[in-house]
User: What shape does this take?
Amino acid sequence: MIIRKTELTELTMKKNEKLGVLNIDSNLYKTRISSRFANRKPYKLIDPHMILSFIPGTVLDILVKPGQRVRKGDSLMLLDSMKMQNKLKSTMDGKVKTILVKKGDRVSKGMVLIEVE
Assistant: This one.
């Protein structure tokens, strides 16, 4: 049995599937959109003013104070994870606005630790 393109569209519509347009590198593709894809968390750009935990662990030491000036590459905090001490460094020049954790806190991956302005 040969199915023409118009019939294929009608068949997919009968199955209650949603057709949508997907944009990949400025090329538009007409495709089925799954519920998992439709309900995904939208991508959000990372704010360079927020210092995030890149790995779960425990805050060993905070090396800066609110209001302190920091330069790109300065160490801000020591984070212990799997018996390794990781130094979190500043990604930009600025001033420490707020510190959202304290020594001994357990942090998860992606948690905001320090805000720099």
Q: What stands out?
A: The chain has two domains: 5-38, 50-116.
